Amino acid sequence: MRKIMIIGAGDLGVRVCHELAHSDRRWEVRLVGRAEDEVRRHVNLIRFSALQRGYKSRVDHALADLDDVDRTAEVIAGFAPDVVFLAASLQSWWVIGTLPAERFQRLYAANFGPWLPMHLVPVHKAMLAVRAAGSGAIVVNAAYPDAVHPVLAGVGLAPHVGIGNVANNVPALRCSAAEILGTAPAEVDVRVVTHHYVSHRLSRTSDIDPSQLRIAILAGGRDAMPDVGLTPLLKPLTTEYRRTGGLAGQAMTAASAMSVLVPLLERREAVVHAPGPLGLPGGYPVVVGPGPVRLALPPGMTDEEALAVNRSGQVEDGIREIGDDGSVLFEESAMDVMRRELGYHCVKMPLSDAEDRARELGARFARYREGVPR
Fold this sequence. Notes:
Elements: E1 2-7, H1 11-21, E2 27-33, H2 36-52, E3 58-63, H3 69-79, E4 83-86, H4 101-108, H5 116-132, E5 138-141, H6 145-153, E6 161-162, H7 170-181, E7 189-194, H8 196-199, E8 213-219, E9 222-223, H9 225-228, H10 230-234, H11 250-266, E10 270-275, E11 283-288, E12 294-295, H12 303-316, E13 319-322, E14 328-330, H13 332-342, E15 348-349, H14 354-369
Parallel strand pairs: 1-2, 1-4, 2-3, 4-5, 5-6
Antiparallel strand pairs: 7-8, 8-9, 10-11, 11-12, 13-14, 14-15
Helix pairs in contact: 1-2, 1-11, 3-5, 5-6, 5-14
């Protein structure tokens, strides 16, 4: 029986655990969190609701804090998972959306890159635990893989693949293309290469720089993108195909996670979309399944071209460069916003400084959210 460990009992981890349990497929699922009572109640709800619907799921829980790498390694080794799903972050991406509208808009202008330490630190510790456990599990990460993975690749600790971001818009793109082509979404295959910066904005604006996005629409055995056109394809994502965002929108992220996790658990080859494969920046179509993760780029696109597209989006997201040693150079324009709003400023961050930066950033944001002058 195949086994999956979910590390992180927040909203996304619980959603994915629920989806895995509500299935006729037979696998073992273990949810790992820090608070005994909270994790137990999550798992009980998942088990009982699955049982109510007639599913014979095997779901349990374990306790570990990612700050304790040795304990986390013991938990991983004891379960011996085939797949590890990391759903841990020091501050989820949707949290700044809970700010009053005016302050949210001011802070949102910094884009996502400056928040990198909040996602990098727990993933780094989790990967240290995976290594210490001697685990051969496929590791799938949900926390800003577009940037976290290339940072950790510099020290040989990148998860195998991410979830979300680039994948979250693919269903709407398939529906939009199908409508234009006069066919069913099931008859349309989409291949998208783009960074978090762009994928996050596709449901908000159709004014996207074409150099930061590559899309192939495959229908009837050919690339139908010339028949569709970029603007007609993207515009419905901001109108009739716009979906709920924020915390409720995590349902889409959970669905994107399942699109990656299920083929891995079933050892079935599938073409999906995912950020951070092979330690690369940004998002790509990839092949997952019984073999190594590999790229499945649009026809005629080279690896170098795909990398250039994603690096251009990375800069827009507030990260100028990620070094081979895992050091990060941030964009000054993004940090100007962070300094003005939070009193936080960091131009260059070696991996060794990430935890201190995360601690400072978290404290400054907490004061900002409470309306305390910096």
